[in-house]
Amino acid sequence: PQQGDDWIFLDWKAPIDGGAVAAYKVQRRERPSGAYLDVGTAIESEITLSGQERGKDWEYRVLAVNKAGESPASNTVAAVL
């Protein structure tokens, strides 16, 4: 990911199966064992999240969403802002 003082840019690949994606839900948790919280929604396969708290060890993941529901979570990426 690309990142700055209080922002992070994430991008990912669209799923290859499971139907058309309506949106992507981006979630974040404090590592190593915090609860995942929704922090953004994207229509395309990228997002810039601003206002991210500095000095924390964050882990981000993405879920694809369509009329059938949510996909399994993506692999995670970790970042300390």
Q: In percent terms, what proportion of residues is strand? A: over 45%
Note the run of SSEs as H and E. EEEEEEEE
Helical fraction equals under 10%
Helical/strand content category: mainly beta
Please report the number of helical segments.
Answer: 0
**What best-fitting shape do the alpha-carbon axes yield?**
globular
How many strands, what sense, and barrel or not for the largest sheet?
A: 5 strands, antiparallel
* Total beta-strand segments: 8
Query: Rg to the nearest angstrom?
Result: 13 Å
Task: Give average pLDDT, whole number.
Answer: 93
Distance between the termini: 11 Å
Q: Can you tell me the residue ranges where pLDDT is under 50 for at least 5 consecutive residues?
A: none
Written overview of the protein:
By secondary structure, this protein is an all-beta fold. Helix content is 0%, strand content 49%. Strands 3, 4, 6, 7 and 8 form a five-stranded antiparallel sheet that branches. The protein has a three-stranded antiparallel sheet with strand order 1-2-5, with no helix packed on it. The model has no long low-confidence stretch (mean pLDDT 93).
Q: What are the salient characteristics of this protein?
A:
mainly beta, 49% strand, three-stranded antiparallel sheet, single chain, five-stranded antiparallel sheet, 81 residues, 0% helix
In short:
This protein is mainly beta. The protein has no helices and 8 strands. It is globular, with a radius of gyration of 13 Å.
